[in-house]
Design a protein that fits this description.
Elements: E1 6-15, E2 23-33, E3 38-42, H1 49-57, E4 64-69, E5 72-73, E6 81-84, H2 96-107, H3 113-126, H4 143-156, E7 161-165, H5 173-190, E8 193-197, H6 201-207, E9 210-214, E10 222-227, H7 236-239, H8 245-262, E11 277-280, E12 288-290
Parallel strand pairs: 3-8, 3-9, 6-7, 7-8, 10-11
Antiparallel strand pairs: 1-2, 1-4, 4-5, 9-10, 11-12
Helix pairs in contact: 2-3, 2-4, 3-4, 4-5
C-alpha cells in the first residue's frame, strides 16, 4: 500500500491553566491525505481546527503526536507549505504583482527578474486579476480581489501542501462563489494537495474530495471522514442536482447540529489509534459507514447501517 502524502498521528493540543486542570482542546487526531487530494475540515468554533492547520504549517507545535509530510516530520515553517488566511496577509506597500513576486523570489532565488515576473503574472491571470489590477496596492483592491492575490501567491510558489484557513469567510456570497470556482479551476490544473478549514457546508461539498467532521471542544477529535463522490468538474449551479447532494448536506448539518455535541469528549469507539469513521453515500442517498481498511475498495451500494455508529 502506498504511504499517504500527509499523515497526522495522535495529534493533541493542551494549554496550561493558571487555575484548575490544563485545557485539552483536541486529542487523538489521526488522519491521512493523499497527494492531490482536496480535504475540508468542519467543526464548531473552539474545536481546534485552526490550531491543527497551524501545526500542519509548522507555525505551532502540538502537545502530543506528529505530522509526517512526504516521508518527513514537519518541524517549523517551510515553502513546501503555503498558507492562505482569512485576512489576506498582503504586504500593503507592494502591488498585487509584487506581493506575488516577493514570494516567488524567495522560492526560487536564482531565477531572473523576467522569469519571476512572468511566472507571477501567470498565476494572477489564472485568478482573473490582470488588466491593470495587478499594479494596484492592496488598499486599492476589493476584498475579493485581495483574496485572489493571496490565492495566486500561494499557488505560485507551488507548495507541496496548500493550507486554507477560511479564506472566503469575510466575503459576500456572490464574490465567494466566484472565487470558489476560480480556486477549483486553478487547483484542477496544478494537482496541489489542499487542506481547508470552512464553516460553510455547501462550500465544502463543492470543493472537497473528503470532509472531516470534528466533535465540539474541549477534547475534540475528528469523528468522521465523509467521502464526496460527486463527479468533477463541479459547478455551483449544477451540483445541487446530483442525487447525493442533499443526502450529503443533510448528514453534515445533522452532525454539526446534534452529534458533534453528543460525541464531544467521547473516545473513538475503535480506539485511540483508529482513523475517523469513513462515510460514503450510494446512489440511493443514504450514508454507509465503511471501516478505514475497506474505505479505498468498498463499492458504492445499498446502505448497510446508519452513520451514527
Amino acid at each position: 500500500m502506498t504511504r499517504p502524502f500527509l499523515e497526522v498521528q495522535g495529534l493533541g493540543k493542551t494549554y496550561p491553566s493558571p487555575q484548575g486542570p490544563p485545557l485539552t482542546v483536541f486529542r487523538d487526531v489521526n488522519l491521512h491525505i493523499q497527494k492531490g487530494e482536496f480535504v475540508c475540515i468542519i467543526g464548531h468554533s473552539g474545536c481546534g481546527k485552526s490550531t491543527i492547520l497551524n501545526v500542519l504549517a509548522g507555525l505551532d507545535t502540538a502537545t502530543t503526536g506528529a505530522v509526517i509530510m512526504d516521508g518527513q516530520e514537519v518541524a517549523g515553517p517551510s515553502l513546501d507549505r503555503g498558507v492562505v488566511f482569512q485576512n489576506y496577509s498582503l504586504l500593503p506597500w507592494l502591488s498585487a504583482l509584487k506581493n506575488v513576486t516577493f514570494a516567488v523570489k524567495a522560492r526560487w532565488p536564482r531565477w531572473s527578474r523576467d522569469k519571476v515576473a512572468e511566472h507571477s503574472y501567470k498565476y494572477l491571470e489564472m485568478v482573473g486579476l490582470t488588466g491593470g489590477a495587478e499594479h494596484r496596492k492592496p488598499h486599492q483592491l476589493s476584498g475579493g480581489m485581495r483574496q485572489r492575490v493571496s490565492i495566486a501567491r500561494a499557488f505560485a510558489i507551488q507548495p507541496k501542501l496548500l493550507l486554507l484557513d477560511e479564506p472566503f469567510g469575510a466575503l459576500d456570497a456572490l464574490t465567494r462563489g466566484v472565487i470558489q470556482e476560480e480556486l477549483l479551476r486553478v487547483w484542477s490544473g496544478t494537482n496541489q494537495t489542499v487542506f481547508m478549514i470552512t464553516h460553510d457546508v455547501d462550500e465544502a461539498i463543492l470543493l472537497a474530495d473528503r470532509i472531516l467532521l470534528m466533535t465540539n471542544g474541549p477534547e475534540a477529535r475528528v469523528a468522521e471522514a465523509v467521502s464526496i463522490d460527486i463527479p468533477r468538474p463541479r459547478q455551483r449551479t449544477s451540483i445541487i442536482h446530483d442525487p447525493n447532494y442533499y443526502a450529503i448536506r443533510n448528514h453534515l448539518v445533522e452532525f454539526l447540529a446534534t452529534r458533534s455535541k453528543e460525541l464531544a469528549g467521547t473516545a473513538n469507539p475503535d480506539g485511540d489509534d483508529a482513523t475517523p469513521q469513513v462515510v460514503q453515500f450510494p446512489t440511493q442517498g443514504f450514508p454507509r459507514p465503511v471501516t478505514p481498511a475497506a474505505a479505498t475498495k468498498a463499492p458504492i451500494g445499498a446502505p448497510t447501517s446508519s452513520a451514527k455508529g
